[in-house]
Design the sequence.
């Protein structure tokens, strides 16, 4: 897995079971009026490859940003497509 030198980049989320999982934010993407974060776990999760990341919908809550895993494949695909478009744009 990738080594993350700056711990300020680490986002710790708590699962429904109360387990804390550390992620690094790869990108923030706006899509159809919502904001999504592409997060990669610091330690591999079961069934994930080194280069995989997850998409979370980010909403404002009373106690700060709230992250909820996105399960809609169409939204996930659109978020990654926008991320790849932005990467291609940066390379040009």
Sequence:
């Amino acid at each position: 897995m990738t080594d993350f030198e700056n711990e300020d980049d680490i986002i710790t989320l708590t699962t429904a079971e109360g387990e804390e999982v550390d992620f690094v934010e790869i990108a923030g993407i706006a899509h159809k009026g919502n904001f999504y974060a592409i997060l990669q776990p610091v330690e591999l999760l079961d069934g994930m490859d080194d280069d995989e990341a997850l998409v979370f919908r980010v909403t404002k809550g009373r106690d700060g940003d709230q992250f909820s895993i996105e399960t809609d494949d169409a939204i996930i695909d659109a978020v990654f497509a926008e991320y790849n478009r932005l990467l291609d744009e940066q390379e040009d």
In short: The first helix runs from residue 73 to 91.
